Amino acid sequence: MQTYLPTLKQLQYLVALAEHEHFGKAAEACYVTQSTLSAGIRELESLLGIMLVERTRRVVRFTALGDRIVAQAHRVLREAEELAELAAAAGTPLAGELRMSVIPTIAPFLLPALLPQLRKERPELKLFLREETSGSACDSLHHGLVDCVLLALPYACGDVDHAELFEDTLLLAIPGDDVSHYPARVVPGSIDPARLLLLEDGHCLKDHALAACNRPDLRAGARMLGTSLHTLVQMVDNGLGVTMLPQMAVAAGLLNQTNIVTRGLDTDHDSRTIALVWRRNSPREKEFRMLADILKAHWRS
């Protein structure tokens, strides 16, 4: 009996539809017409003999079995990509396409100085970047949407390997008018939780900042208002509270043209670890470690 297997293209269409929950947007992401994508998914359903998607005018809803097929499709596509990566890795290292997610509390402060140097050292490398929060970046990694992630640890990113690049110290940022109220190094226990401004959920820097304080009352009482570090800086500069900023952001000029001053934290947990993360057992591990060495060398220079 002849068995007909799904094609990678059909699985790509299915995964795109699950991601975008809209036929038109999924088709656009796959660079095909909506009718082509819809026909491909119908062919897949016919091939498998099951309904994967419930179609209505307004909603795209996957069946319970459809959700399971999507999860398996992610794994099949990721392994197919790793097959191609295995062949590519046998050639010139750090050449061709490489897709990397970078979290928002790293991207604008490290990449502007790094990318020109990387282009100079590795002109054949085509680096495609996605800026995402930590959770979204790890999801993209495991779904095969990116090859590696520039992340701040500790963070639970699943079954991954990583190379640590450097330590990034956290600093307390305070309004200039309040400078006399804070010593050169601030004991976390002295921070008023009602004055502490942090990023919204989804940003690992929030967890790193709270870990630096190691105070349950701060975790419950901190005001998580900022959508970005730039927003937090504007709040502090207007006297609305204090916040914690990574040293790399301050060194990159985040506080320029503000009246904000910084103080160190008198704690053993006053830093986050910047690391390059990739899927465990990736055939491109050697390349990722080479990239990590380049990033590390750039930071030290």
From TrEMBL:
The keyword Protein transport does not apply. It holds the Pfam family LysR_substrate. CDD domains: PBP2_OxyR. InterPro entries: LysR_HTH_N, LysR_subst-bd, WH-like_DNA-bd_sf, WH_DNA-bd_sf. PROSITE patterns: HTH_LYSR. Keywords: DNA-binding, Transcription, Transcription regulation. GO terms for cellular component: protein-DNA complex. It comes from the Bacteria. Residues 6-63 form the HTH lysR-type domain. GO terms for molecular function: DNA binding; DNA-binding transcription factor activity. Gene3D superfamilies: Periplasmic binding protein-like II (3.40.190.10), Winged helix-like DNA-binding domain superfamily/Winged helix DNA-binding domain (1.10.10.10). Belongs to the LysR transcriptional regulatory family. This is Hydrogen peroxide-inducible genes activator.
